[in-house]
Write a sequence for this structure.
């Protein structure tokens, strides 16, 4: 699958959601109504993670359909994701009660995820469990039947979440891997539609999905956990799916804006580091002297600096090893 520049911009937009929700949300806001901002930040934080899942399902499934080499897939995923993840786990969580949960990528299955500097790693656990099973399903399912694989997975995920919410197990509905599979599978279904339908049919599919998401978005509140997350995923689908088309010049200029592209390129690091950097220093201790947003922007600059250093000094050199394991198109 060819590199899609617009995807990096969507990654940049996505990562800002959790950063805002995890930092601004935990402190009083002096210049804006707390009651007004809290629901918006929670929703935006959720939407950012959901957008990441849709992007992941779209890209990963597309790669596996184009180049069904599971061995190379795992090698390349290992080089990109695991080294920096385990480095941070070893530095930040040695001896913690949940250490082995984090090490084994099962942290998301703890009924209550304790608040600490890597509590947001739960979504990375979902991704890794997705990588563990999904390649085998995609590669060994005949292409004509993949659409049913993705559709059934979406339906199963929704029923799973509805059941858990009914039984008052909302944490598992939110953080459990199966509870996130509707978002990942919507991305996968979009990748399949791109490869197996005409351009016009694909465009109609994206418009239909947008309509299906936009209408209930107006009427459904975030309190309806199952429908809310699915509706957000539906809205994310046409954003991600349309990235393969040329954008109008003015929109293209925005999506190719260098700072946004760079933020998307280091978005994995930004996501990893945003809570450790937040917990490292008392950023808000000076908010009454310098102002809330000045302190928050200082934190944001520090997070970008740490993520950039990590990218150039550690992540990119390891990531460059992927050139020895290039994907080979299916015959």
């Amino acid at each position: 699958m060819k590199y899609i520049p617009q995807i990096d911009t969507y990654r940049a937009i996505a990562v800002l959601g959790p950063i805002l929700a995890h930092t601004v949300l935990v402190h009083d806001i002096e210049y804006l109504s707390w009651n007004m901002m809290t629901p918006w930040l929670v929703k935006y934080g959720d939407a950012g993670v959901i957008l990441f899942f849709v992007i992941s399902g779209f890209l990963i499934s597309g790669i596996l359909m184009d180049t069904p080499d599971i061995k190379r897939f795992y090698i390349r995923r290992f080089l990109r994701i695991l080294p920096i993840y385990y480095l941070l786990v070893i530095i930040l969580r040695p001896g913690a009660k949940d250490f082995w949960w984090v090490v084994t990528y099962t942290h998301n299955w703890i009924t209550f995820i304790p608040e600490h500097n890597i509590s947001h790693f739960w979504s990375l656990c979902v991704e890794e469990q997705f990588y563990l099973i999904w390649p085998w399903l995609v590669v060994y399912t005949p292409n004509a039947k993949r659409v049913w694989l993705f559709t059934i997975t979406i339906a199963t995920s929704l029923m799973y979440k509805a059941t858990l919410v009914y039984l008052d197990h909302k944490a598992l509905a939110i953080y459990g891997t199966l509870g996130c599979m509707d978002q990942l599978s919507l991305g996968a279904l979009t990748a399949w539609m791109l490869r197996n339908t005409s351009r016009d049919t694909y465009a109609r599919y994206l418009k239909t999905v947008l309509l299906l998401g936009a209408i209930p978005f107006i009427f459904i509140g975030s309190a309806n956990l199952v429908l809310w997350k699915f509706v957000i995923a539906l809205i994310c689908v046409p954003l991600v799916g349309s990235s393969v088309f040329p954008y109008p010049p003015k929109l293209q200029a925005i999506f190719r804006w260098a700072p946004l592209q760079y933020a998307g390129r280091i978005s994995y690091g930004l996501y990893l580091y945003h809570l450790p950097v937040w917990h490292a220093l008392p950023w808000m201790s000076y908010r009454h002297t310098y102002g809330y947003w000045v302190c928050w922007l200082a934190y944001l600059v520090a997070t970008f600096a740490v993520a950039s250093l990590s990218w150039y000094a550690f992540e990119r050199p390891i990531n460059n090893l992927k050139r020895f394991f290039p994907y080979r198109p299916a015959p």
